[in-house]
Each structure stands twice: as structure tokens, then as C-alpha cells.
Amino acid sequence: MEREGKILIVDDNEDVLLSLNMLLKPHVEAVRVINKPERIIEFMDNFMPDVIMLDMNFSRDAISGEEGYEWLQKILKHNPQSVVLFITAYVDTEKAVRAIKAGAVDFIPKPWDKTKLLDTVKSAVELSKNRQGNRNEVNVPAMDDVFSTFIGECPEIQKIKKQIARIAVTDTNVLITGENGTGKDVVAHAIHRLSQRSEKPFVCIDLGCIPEALFESELFGYEKGAFTDARTQKAGRMETADGGTLFLDEIGNLTMQMQQKLLTAIEKKEVVRVGAQKAQKVDMRIVSATNANLQQRVYENTFRQDLLYRIDTIELHLPPLRERGSDIILLAEHFAKKITEKYGGEAVTLDKDACKKLMSHPWHGNVRELQHCMERSIVMSGKSVLTADDIVLGDTSPEKGESRTEQAVPLNLEELERQAIRRAVAMSNGNLTQAAELLGITRFALYRKIDKLGI
Questions:
Q1: 132-147: average pLDDT
Q2: What pLDDT score was predicted for residue 95?
Q3: Could you tell me the CA-to-CA distances from 332 to 82, 180, 312, 347, 355 in Å, in that order?
Q4: What pLDDT shows up at residue 407?
């Protein structure tokens, strides 16, 4: 037997776990053993086994096998492609037929015959690989379509695409991290579209734009008459996402009180509309995104560790554009094509010097900044071939008449904020959404600062 296949063994008997581990380890790629079935889903998401060897009896009746059937259903619900082998000392025809109908592949009897056990595991691994191959074959066109807007050929992006394809078919919660403008929303959509929930809703909520007073009504919904303007009942975002994916963007902006309410809803998998007495069950996958270091926030006691554990089963980190090399040119050409399709006119290309200028820019606003840069450059130049002079980059130099010396820089924080906001608004031609992106804050936060500072 070749060393192929990852095996997860689940049994409450430590001797069985030890024996199977020693027997299988020389013949397979990797083996993990657990004595508590409650950890199966965790290992499915993190270890991603090809075969699960599952004991039929744990804490209840020693011969009924009911617990095994229950855990089998949970496994198949989490990933219908799973290959499960039952481990049991009580095999009969009726139980075997029921197990196969329920989705198990075969039995490992106790005590086992070494040769037969290895053959059974080998066959199970081959079946698992075939299922994965069939699934990938079916999803290739869909995957190409999903990744058509996720442009990039650098090693980091290729790795992320593979990770997305692997984790999308599970039901694990995902945290996407990275600087503003790196494409976290694109990744969230890709995960949903490649998942088992793709036919159900994808609901996005920008937590950075929701005032704390409206948090519950937005997330959980409200009943008619719950407050003055509640003329009709309204389902919240979590209820709307039932069966699908809930994308929690800018999750690092939540206050501690908002974090507690969100955690309770995620843990209980239920929501209570504002003004309602009865809770409603919800089933959704949670995909979150942030540009903040949440682990650091935990150390600073500004983010709940238990909430981080809930949302961060798997983390995907997106690299900044400045670290993606020639992807900058691929993206620029992609945006050029989209922009010319949008406005009409002939195709636009970049000459050598234009490419060099784009490659040398730091792109603090990342992919989003590049998109805006290309649109400005194409619209303003009106040319079919852009030169370096045609590339309109964001102005990172001091404003005209502004001294470069430290003595001339104001130290008043409010004045510094005013200057930064005015420059960002000017650079984005009055577009507050773009200005907020340049400042690295949310649009809602920018509105508040403009109002506070009297700009």
C-alpha cells in the first residue's frame, strides 16, 4: 500500500486508537486520532481527511450503533463527499444495509484482520480521490468563472485560489485579512459561489457603517411596532442569510457590546428580532473580513477572544498589491478592458514606461486604488496607448505651498485630520467613498469626522 491518504480515526477506546495509528501510519500519508466525536467537524475543516474511520458506539448503548449513525449524518451534512468507514464489534446484515443506505462505505470489524483492514482503507482512499476528482471536474468551469475577477498569477495568489477551492466545499467559518482594497470581498464571494450553499443567499453587511444603536435591528431584524418607525416587520441580515453565507465586513470595528450580541447569535445559531419574544433558528456560514490585527486587539482587550475563535476557524491573508509583482500589470490591463467596455472606444494598452511607473508605485490603496488610477488615466488621456505621462497617480507629495520642514507641520491632531481629509477629498475629486479608502477608514467614519471637524 502506497503512502497515500489522510486518515481520521474516531473511537473512545484508547487501545483501539493506538493500535490503528501504529498499523496505518507506515502505509498512509498522515493519521490523526480523536476520542471525542464532538471534534470531528473541527478536524474535517483543519486536517481535511480523505477517510474517516468512525466507531459506532460511544457513551450510550454499547451495541445499538445509534451514535455512529447520528455522527455519520453530521459528517455527510458538513461534506457530502466524505468517505466514512464504521468501526464496530457488532456487525450484522441489517446493520450493514442500514449503514450503507445512510452513507457509510464499509465496516472495519473488531478484532480486525490486518491485511483486510489495509485493503479496505486503500480502497476507501481511492474512492475519496475519485470523488474529489469528479467534484473538481464538475466545478472546473464554475471555478474558472468564479476566479475570472480574481486576477493574479503570483505564487501568493495562486496559493490563495487553491485554499479557496479546498475550504469552499466545507462549512467552516473563514476570516479574511489584509489591507484595505486587497479584494477581501472578492474572496468572500468566491468562497460562497464554490460552496454547497451557492444557491442560497450571500448577504453582506458592512459593520463599519452601522451605528451601535441600529446594530440589533440591522443584524437581527425587528417586529412591527418595536420602535417609532417600525411600521412593518423586517427580517435582519442573519435571518436573510439563512441557508447561505453571511459576510461580516469590517468586523474589527465592532464595539465590545456589539461583539457580545453577535457572539451569542453565532453560538446559539438563533436570532431574536427587536420587539419579539421568540427566537428563530438560523443556519449560515460566517465569512468575516478585517484590515485589523484581531489577535493584537484581543491582547489589548478591545476584541473578544471567544468571538475570534468562532469566526477564525481558517484565516486567509491577502497580500498587498505592492508585493504581487507583475500582477500589477495584469490587473491594470484587466481594468483597462473593463473601463473601455464601460465607456466605449477602442482597446487601451500600456507602453513599457507606463508599466514601469505602475510597478514602482507603492499602492497604499491596493487593487482598488489601481482601478481608480486606470479609470482616471484612460478618461483623461483619451489615448489608445498609455504612456508614463498619461498615468495619473494619487498625489502623495505635499500640497503646493506646504513646507517640507517639521517646523511647518501642525501638531494639533484636529488640524492634522482636517488637512488629511481635505487632501483625500481633493485627490478623489469629491468622491467620499474613495476619500475614505485613501484615509484607511470607513465611509461612515469619514462622515462623522467631517461633521465633527466642520469641514
A1: 54
A2: 63
A3: 41, 18, 32, 13, 9
A4: 38
Task: Indicate the SS3 state at residue 422.
Answer: helix
Does 396 map to a domain?
Answer: no
Q: Are both 161 and 56 inside the same structural domain?
A: no
Please check whether residue 203 is in contact with residue 317, taking contact to mean a CB–CB distance below 8 angstroms: no
Question: Which CATH number do you get for residue 43?
Answer: 3.40.50.2300
Is 420 found in the same domain as 298?
Answer: no
The model's pLDDT over 183-236, given as tens digits with 9 standing for 90+, comes to 999 999 999 988 888 888 999 888 877 888 888 888 998 888 877 777 788 888
CATH of the domain at 340: 1.10.8.60
Residue 72 lies in a domain: yes
315 with 217, same domain: the answer is: yes
Residue 239 DSSP SS3: helix
Q: Cα-atom radius of gyration of the chain, to the nearest Å?
A: 27
Secondary structure string (H, E, C) spanning 357-400 = HHHHCCCCCHHHHHHHHHHHHHHHHCCCEECHHHCCCCCCCCCC
Is there a single domain that holds both residue 109 and residue 122? yes
Same domain, 118 and 179: no
More confident residue, 364 or 448: 364
Q: What is the pLDDT of residues 339-379, one digit of tens each?
A: 888 877 788 999 999 999 999 999 999 998 999 999 889 98
3-state secondary structure 262-293: HHHHHHHCEECCECCCCCEECCCEEEEEECCC
- Do 435 and 345 fall into the same domain? no
Query: Tens digits of per-residue pLDDT, 377-391?
Result: 998 888 889 999 999
Q: Note whether 306 and 169 are same-domain residues.
A: yes
Residue 204: half-sphere exposure toward Cβ, Cα within 13 Å: 13
351: containing domain? 322-390
Question: Is residue 328 domain-shared with residue 304, that is, in the same domain?
Answer: no
Give pLDDT tens digits for 399-421: 443 333 333 445 567 777 777 78
Total residues found in the chain within this entry: 455
pLDDT at 24 over 50: yes
In whole angstroms, how far apart are CA 207 and each of 134, 167, 174, 180, 211?
39, 24, 16, 14, 9
Q: For residues 266-282, give the mean pLDDT.
A: 90
Give the end of a domain, one of 137, 172, 192.
137
Confidence band of 144 (pLDDT split at 50, 70, 90): low
Count up the domains in the chain and report the number: 4
For residue 111, say if its preceding peptide bond is cis, omega within 30 degrees of 0.
yes
Which of these three, 293, 319, 345, is where a domain ends? 319
Q: Give the containing element (helix H, strand E) for 350.
A: strand 349-350
- Is position 262 within any domain? yes
